[in-house]
Amino acid sequence: MGSLKLAENLAVRSVAFIKSASRLSESPDTGGLPELAIAGRSNVGKSSLINRLVNRRQLARVSNTPGRTQLLNFFKVNDAFVLCDLPGYGYAKVPYEMRSSWGEMIGGYLERRDPLRALLLLVDCRREPGEWERDLATFCSTRGLALVTVVTKVDKLSKAQRFSAMARVARALGVAPDALLGFSSETGEGLDELWRRVTRVLNLGEPSAPA
Ligand SMILES: Nc1nc2c(ncn2[C@@H]2O[C@H](COP(=O)(O)OP(=O)(O)O)[C@@H](O)[C@H]2O)c(=O)[nH]1
Ligand SMILES: [Mg+2]
């Protein structure tokens, strides 16, 4: 593909909201399309990343509509794959009991959603990933789900700070630093690599060459 930018090449032709669901049994029948779930703590930059990824503002807006933020939100992209935006985890103002219901609601989906192929796990570059992130990573390898770990908001760090931040996040998650993908919704850094990894883990095949 030479110097062509993948994100420009892999044009997002269509994004359609399918439905919101509060549990696995309400999840839509999507005709066998591979599914990608996106998880992260509240404020990690999930909505901003989704907007960048599909180059649509309305998509993440749907997920941010009051009443829908605590649901699984399903979208179809290019009739090629399904994106499931999971509720943000650990919102500070939510009492502890409600936070543990995150696990109950998401658990069944993550454990038994048939078309689910991969998880995009977002980690803020200025925060230490904790038990929750480690549990999700372990869960993915147990269930055989591909895991793409994205370190968000890297524009906030200098080159030197970034190097140590990536090392710190990698150590906390028990992965190699090059397994992590640095990303910025502000600058678009990492977008091509993100598309490349999503294409690979969902087995979408080579994006077609532009006409
Ligand atoms: N500097 C910077 N700020 C970001 C980035 N991504 C998100 N933010 C900001 O972080 C805050 C939370 O972002 P949002 O996408 O709503 O997070 P969500 O709660 O995970 O959906 C907002 O103020 C965003 O403008 C980024 O890549 N760089
Ligand atoms: Mg959001």
How would you describe this protein?
- Helices cover 36% and strands 20% of the residues.
- The longest helix is centred in the middle third of the chain and has 17 residues, at 96-112.
- The model has no long low-confidence stretch (mean pLDDT 86).
- It has 211 residues and is of the alpha/beta class.
- It has one domain: 3-Layer(aba) Sandwich (Rossmann fold), CATH 3.40.50.300.
- Guanosine-5'-diphosphate binds at residues 40, 42-48, 88, 152-153, 155-156, 184-186.
- Magnesium ion binds next to helix 2 and helix 3.
Task: Write a compact overview of the structure shown.
This protein has helices at 6-9, 46-54, 57-64, 96-112, 131-143, 159-173, 191-201, and strands spanning 15-21, 35-40, 72-77, 81-85, 116-124, 146-152, 181-182. With 211 residues, it is of the alpha/beta class. It has one domain: Rossmann fold, CATH 3.40.50.
- Main beta-sheet strand count, sense and barrel state: 7 strands, mixed
Q: What is the fold-level CATH name, i.e. the topology?
A: Rossmann fold
Instruction: Count the beta strands.
Output: 7
CATH superfamily: P-loop containing nucleotide triphosphate hydrolases
Query: What value does the Rg take, in angstroms?
Result: 16 Å
Shape: globular
- Helix residue percentage: 25-40%
Beta-strand level of the residues, as a percent range? 15-25%
Q: Please give the CATH class.
A: Alpha Beta
Multimerization status: single chain
What is the level-2 CATH architecture name?
3-Layer(aba) Sandwich
Small molecules bound: guanosine-5'-diphosphate, magnesium ion
Structural domain tally: 1
By secondary-structure content and strand pairing, the structural class works out as alpha/beta
| Discrete helix count | 7
